[in-house]
Amino acid sequence: MLIFLTLLNTVIFVFLSLMHIYWAFGGQMGKDAAVPTIDSGEKLFIPSSFGTLIVAAGLLVFALINLFAYVISAGFINIQYIRYGILGVGFVFLLRATGDFNYVGLMKKHKDTVFAKMDTRFYAPLCLSLFLSHLLIFITITS
Q: What DSSP assignment string belongs to 51-85?
């Protein structure tokens, strides 16, 4: 199970990172549904290209942490660093799934925008499943 979860998480993070790189360099597909909006449709913030690249880099780091969990037998890094790195990534996605109680996450109040509908159907459940998979990996990796 460890191999499957770590590789699945790695693929998800690489895909999400590539999407952010695409957006940072001017790609438009899916961009309108990726940023929270108020009920009138106005975006809460306009992400900069640099900020989007930072998110892409963070997602690649998350992919690497999952790969290190997969190749733990190589012994390059102390197993405890990997375990708590995995747990940290999981909690990042638990926080994202929970959201800000207004526009983002499972607990949001505003639910009628394009972003909110995509968040309810896809983004928040994905974040919750990433948290659960990281929790399982954390438990599975023996110290």
A: HHHHHHHHHHHHHHHHHHHHTGGG-SS-HHHHHHH
